[in-house]
Fold:
Amino acid sequence: MRNVKAKNILIFFPNGRGNYGSAVAAELEKKGANVYMYDERPDSSVITKVSIRLAKDSLRHLFLHYVKKILKDNNTVSFDIILIVRGEAFTPLVMRYLRKTCPAAHFILYLWDSVKNTNTTSIFPYFDKVLSFDTYDVEKFKLIHRPLFFIDDYREISRSVEREIDVLFIGKIHSDRYHFIKMVETELKMNDFKTYFYFYIQSRLLFYMMRLQEPTFRNAKLDEFKFTILPSKDVSKIMKLSRASLDAQHPNQTGLTMRTVEVLGARRKLITTNQDIKNYDFFRSENIQVVDRKNPIIDFDFIRTPYSDVPDLIYERYSLQGWLGEIMEA
Structure:
């Protein structure tokens, strides 16, 4: 990792100084950096999120105004590094402005969502370094591969030996994820496993839209879903009590989800649909069971047997410190 002591670092991060953003800022500040962190979107409303995804170009002037205000508020600061994580709302117009206004800065883009979902290729030329968690995007667009990371909360979980929940799922519902989880739930309950599932969806409107658009979602019931994200401290408490977590990546991505890496950090087992996980250095069949998302068959002995530790060198690579070390390499 480059020396960031006394460096001024401007970061655009999903949800700004949310849980993960705060952890990133704190780690850099611990190393002596001056961190200025903002949300990578002008606000977190459902309307804004949908508008950015479906008609980003029509919002380019609104977003430019957002970025201009940030630089105006910090007009006495000369930025050394500008790190943008995901960057879904950014356009060439905004990037040209940033490059012109901060000519001495080193620009880094980290994609923690797939290009198919975020449509970010037009801004790639404006960066000195572009990294992605998604192996398909890395190969197609000639990017640098860097998986996601876990924060130190999950190290603490890894020390817990309590096991009251056999299989856990906490996450956002998209694509066919609900259908997959319900199939697994049926199989687990028939065999007397204890489960905890928290289905998050952004709004009731999105729930009804999914019922119209996704055939496997037609039988979903509104009262099965939560419309607020479970706070990270609650996720930690629940994961402490679990043996294994369940995950299904978006069909448009091959990269490992954040939950996958968090489970590694917590030293818990994982049942996943992501076949690509077999290509990672931390893969152990004792810890990770890969299943077919259309016809999941669970090995019940896998859930019952103990977790097998991975070497410290591999474990640390997926930590926040390991991630920053590679992101901030000169």
In short: The mean pLDDT is 90. The two ends are 7 Å apart (CA to CA). The chain has two domains: 8-146, 153-317. The CA atoms of residues 247 and 272 lie 5 Å apart.
